[in-house]
Amino acid sequence: MATKKSSPDDLLAPVTLAVGQEDLLLDRAVREVVAAARAADADTDVRDLTADQLQPGALAELTSPSLFAERKVLVVRNAQDLVADTVKEIKAYLDAPAEEITLVLLHPGGAKGKALLDAARKVGAREVACPKTTKPAERLTFVRQEFRSLGRSATPEACQALVDAIGSDLRELASAAAQLTADVDGTIDEAVVGRYYTGRAEASSFTVADRAVEGRAAEALEALRWSLSTGVAPVLITSALAQGVRAIGKLSSARGGRPADLARELGMPPWKIDRVRQQMRGWTPDGVSLALRAVAEADAGVKGGGDDPEYALEKAVVTIARAARMRRG
Q1: At residue 204, does pLDDT exceed 70?
Q2: From the CB of residue 25, how many other CB atoms can be counted at a distance below 10 Å?
Q3: Rounded distance, CA 152 to CA 202, Å?
Q4: Per-residue pLDDT, 328
Q5: Torsion over CA of 199, 203, 207 and 208, rounded to 10 degrees?
Q6: At 98, phi and psi to the nearest 5?
Q7: Residue 154: per-residue pLDDT
Q8: How many angstroms separate the Cα of 59 from the Cα of each of 56, 74, 92, 111?
Q9: String of DSSP letters for 220-231
């Protein structure tokens, strides 16, 4: 095999590496290769194997020429768990891959099985990154890309609302985006997301925070209890409360200006500037200080500093909602 690196767009490259721990992206990488192979040859033979199924000697049989010379896609999952003899066989195969066969290796990255990764990269394998999304901003980017790939327009508020409602599971986010695209005509906005995912949204940590900073104590407590009953981690709720109060503090002390200018200055998206402006009515500097102290106490309470994390959160929510109503004298 030539050492020239295969193009990311060459779905029928002799070898594809899908590297990362995000199951949805790994599965998509496989599906894209299989779809391209079957577009080229409808009779493509697909073998999808786990590491323990690819025992020494099996690779030679799977990659041997077929009587009918049909195209093959050979998928190997959890490649980091392959036994040493099989890894040796794959390395030898990489130097002279068979025609009409596409080998897809799924690997989580990391040190285990790195020698196989290095060997595939050395011969120029096509590589697809499938990293685990760990940050809210990454999930928001994913949702935006989903709608874009589906050929639909969704407002920034709608994308954020969907992330708030669904959470961190990319499969569920992708499914929700596909459902909204199929069911709704025109631009998808926040109201549409709310109609479809009201129950989920009420359980999100950001909904708790939004209701609290708006001074709506009863609704915030209701959302909090629903969140906890559905398994939302208390630490995520304190994080959302902290973000909400800090956003109020940042915007209240910033110079006036257009949302785009403030967004650059404060590191927030423009749509969030508009939302926080609405939420900050009634807030005072003393109120922000009081709320930040309440968040700090709740954070300590849910991380082992108190006996009852739920009570710590309820106390913080009530204090924040009360702080939101402290009018300037």
Answers
A1: no
A2: 20
A3: 26
A4: 44
A5: 140
A6: -75, 150
A7: 95
A8: 7, 9, 11, 24
A9: HHHHHHHHHHTT
Q: Which two tokens stand for residue 217?
A: 């104590």
Bridge partners of residue 126, in order along the sequence: 16
Question: Three-state SS string across 23-81, please?
Answer: HHHHHHHHHHHHHHHHHHCCCCEEEEEEHHHCCCCHHHHHCCCCCCCCCEEEEEECHHH
Structure tokens at 206: 């950001």
pLDDT at 202: 47
Token pair of 150 as six digits: 């589906």
Amino acid at 274: D
- Secondary structure of 229-274 in HEC code, one letter for each residue: HCCCCHHHHHHHHHHHHHHHHHHHHCCCCCHHHHHHHHCCCHHHHH
C-alpha to C-alpha distances, 220 to 98, 165, 209, 211, 261, nearest whole angstrom: 61, 15, 7, 5, 31
pLDDT at 275 over 80: no
Cβ atoms 253, 283 nearer than 8 A: no
Q: How confident is the model at residue 201 (pLDDT cuts 50, 70, 90)?
A: very low
- Residue 221 has a CB neighbour count (10 Å cut-off) of 18
Inform me whether the pLDDT recorded for 173 exceeds 70.
yes
For residue 2, pLDDT over 70 is answered with: no
Q: What tokens appear for 88 in the block?
A: 């040796």
- Lookup: tokens for 306: 């108190």
Residue in 202, 209, 194 with CA at minimum distance from that of residue 227: 202
Mean pLDDT, residues 253-278 = 69
Give the distance, in angstroms, between the CA of residue 140 and the centroid of all CA atoms in the same chain.
7
To the nearest 10 degrees (0 to 180), the angle between helices 205-213 and 217-229 is 170
